[in-house]
Amino acid sequence: MNEQIPVLREVDLGTARLMPDVDRERAWLLTVDGAPQSYVDLDDPGHLEFEYARRLGHVVDGAADEGAPLDVLHLGGGALSLPRYVSATRPGSRQDVVEADGGLVALVAEHLPLPKGSGVTVHTADARAWLEAAPTASADLVVGDVFGGSRVPAHLTSLTYAREVRRVLRPGGTYAANLADGAPFAFLRGQLATFAAVFPELALIAEPAVLRGRRFGNAVLVASDEALDVPGLTRRAAADAFPARVEHGEALARFTGDAAPVEDAEAVGSPAPPEGAFGIG
Fold first, then answer.
1. In a domain, 271, yes or no
2. Parent domain of 161
3. d(CA 229, CA 137)
4. Is 276 inside any structural domain?
5. Which of 98, 128, 231, 245 has the fewest CB within 10 Å, making it most exposed?
């Protein structure tokens, strides 16, 4: 039984709470203003609790040969669940994490410190500003997982942003973004159109119930300038405890429909989730 004590702290962008998992001795759930942000098991960094995190993990697993190190840029940090996963599964990786909330960075460093030699460097900065200053062709993988509360910020949804992502990626590199939407999917379809205007290869990973519009939920967008390993991604997503579907090619084009790419001037954040969609009971 876990006898760790919950931690409550005001950070820059809200009220953060670290809650111990009673079933896992050194595992913690991070929420900000009640919205789940990260789950970390300090004894098992290869464990990804949240469904969307496991889908991002599937992208990591297929980004290079098994165990090969990667240079990764994470936009959005939280409690560093995915950087810990990359460090555990791909030793020797070099990772930069950009998190706008300095108070949250300090909280995580104090209570959920990274192991020595993790290869992870955390920076307190705006994600897009950091991306725009990053060297060209410097990353094998860029992960977009930035949420202001429960919404993806507007300035991380535009064509200009997508072009910066492609500039920073090496040839053959991969972009993966955690997004959230529900029917009629105006935001998600706009994101697909935006990244399709910049990257020749796209895929979308989500639960069938989300894709059918039955509930609001997360979807992981995957983009590259080279062919994606869709069969491998499909196998990994289908084998999950909560199986997901991978849309690609003509099916994804049909889902995108007549949505237009999003320019900076009309960019909007992802929709606010319905009450209780991501809340803690």
1. no
2. 50-266
3. 21
4. no
5. 231
Residue 84's domain is classified under what CATH number? 3.40.50.150
CA atoms within 13 A on the CB side of 253: 5
Q: How many domains does the chain have?
A: 1
What does pTM read for this prediction? 0.96
CB 162 within 8 A of CB 144: no
Q: For residue 7, is it within any domain? A: no
What is each CA distance from 80 to 68, 169, 254, 255, 274, in whole angstroms? 20, 21, 35, 32, 26
What span, in angstroms and rounded, lies between the C-alpha atoms of 85 and 141? 14
Model pLDDT for residues 76-111, shown as the tens digit of each residue: 999 999 999 999 999 999 999 999 999 999 999 999
- Beta strand 139-144 with 71-75 is parallel
Asked whether residue 213 is assigned to any structural domain, the reply reads: yes
pLDDT in tens, 15-50: 999 999 999 999 999 999 998 999 999 999 999 999
Give the list of residues 6+ apart from residue 277 with CB closer than 8 angstroms, or none. 150, 215, 216, 217
